[in-house]
Design a protein that fits this description.
Length: 242
């Protein structure tokens, strides 16, 4: 007898016997804030065949167990997990709830069940500039690269930090995007790799934050993903499901 597969949109905190089949859209490990050897957590964004996304967290004592079992871009059957409210300043999804892996959570890779929905839910640059969207949710944006700053240094808390800014253009609107930390090297490497004139840039899971007195988007460590000239089939046609 086949086990019922639940829709991600139905997941709530009424039980922990859910059974979902989802693609790992994003996966990152958050380091310890105290400098310890154990990571703070592992974070994931999961999406089902209908395009509904939900955030999932693995606490530090279980990262060793689940990290080897999960790979970004692959599809898994995930069952028996905790469910809590989706709270926080930088939420990756609009789902009311989030998943918390525990010791009894089961993960099984599904090789013959492709999930082809686009993982992107784009917000227009004009909405960011003029409509004051909720900054507690991370956003996906797309635009044409029209400028970049090169590497810049600035002082924060007595330490020299690095950043790079790029300008994106869409439907008559220009938006400055600021990136920090490891993202600086990633962007500079892309810009140095070849002619990026009028390149299409996708920034996935970016936070909205004022920069130089104007609305802008910035990276969130680990969560944000930047793509230059991505595969068109995977990008266009993106819709917001839930």
């Amino acid at each position: 007898m086949a086990i019922k597969v639940d829709d991600v949109s139905d997941v709530n905190n009424s039980k922990d016997t859910w059974n979902i089949v989802t693609k790992v859209v994003r996966l990152w490990v958050s380091p310890s804030f105290s400098g310890g050897k154990l990571p703070f957590s592992m974070e994931l964004v999961l999406m089902d065949s209908k395009g509904c996304q939900i955030h999932a967290s693995v606490r530090k004592t279980l990262v060793y167990r689940f990290h080897p079992l999960l790979t970004e871009g692959r599809v898994y059957q995930i069952s028996y997990f905790g469910v809590g409210d989706n709270l926080g300043d930088f939420r990756t999804t609009t789902h009311q709830f989030k998943i918390n892996f525990h010791i009894h959570t089961k993960v099984k890779e599904i090789g013959n069940c492709p999930i082809t929905k686009s993982p992107y839910s784009f917000i227009s640059l004009s909405e960011i500039m003029f409509n004051d969207p909720d900054p507690s949710y991370l956003m996906d944006i797309i635009g044409i690269l029209t400028g970049s700053s090169g590497e810049q240094e600035y002082e924060k808390d007595g330490k020299i930090q690095k950043r790079v800014t790029i300008e994106l253009f869409q439907d008559g609107v220009r938006l400055e995007c600021a990136f920090f930390g490891n993202y600086v090297g990633q962007i500079l490497g892309q810009l140095a790799a070849g002619d990026m004139t009028n390149a299409v840039v996708v920034v996935q899971y970016a936070k909205i934050k004022p920069f130089r007195g104007r609305p802008s988007v910035q990276n969130v460590y680990g969560a944000t993903k930047i793509l230059f000239n991505p595969d068109v089939q995977n990008v266009y046609g993106a819709t917001k499901i839930c």
